[in-house]
Amino acid sequence: MMLCAAGCADRNTEKTAESVPETTAETVQRVSAYDREAVGETKSAGCVLLTPYFYGPVTLAGTSEVSAEGKNLHLEVDAVAAENDLGYREGEWIPYLTIDYDVADKDGNTVASGALMVSSSKNGPTYGSNISLPGSGSYSLRLSVHSPAENGFYLHKDERTGVSGEFWDKPITVTWPARDIEVD
Description:
By secondary structure, the chain is mainly β.
């Protein structure tokens, strides 16, 4: 059973992620509508299951267009709910997150960092960003997942409609070890 980390007694303790049992990860991973390669296994950041992917850069459109020009990779993260006490359905995309990323080379030097944008693709809503790596090589990934409360998401707390959980107070950090990545 996996419960949201926010439901733990000490919400102010720095949190780190854990690997998700294989059966849980298989249950919540969505079928991809296009070719993308997972960075590693699905990991848990409290009640959020994270699966990051790398593939070629993409053009994004919204209030303005975000070009893929000058970028050599797209980092995309599926962020879906694990079992929780916050009202999210298991496997459902979690809105209002801020997810910061940090890509480091084999020596531990940061080569790309920033905040992922919210977007939608044939796979549904995701968090992602076009990034530039200095070339093919071995890179690790670190994600920091901020609470939806930071972006104005509220939880019902009344007796009739309320949820029992609380959002986490500090970002939850999740890491994937270095792996070889090829870029054009």
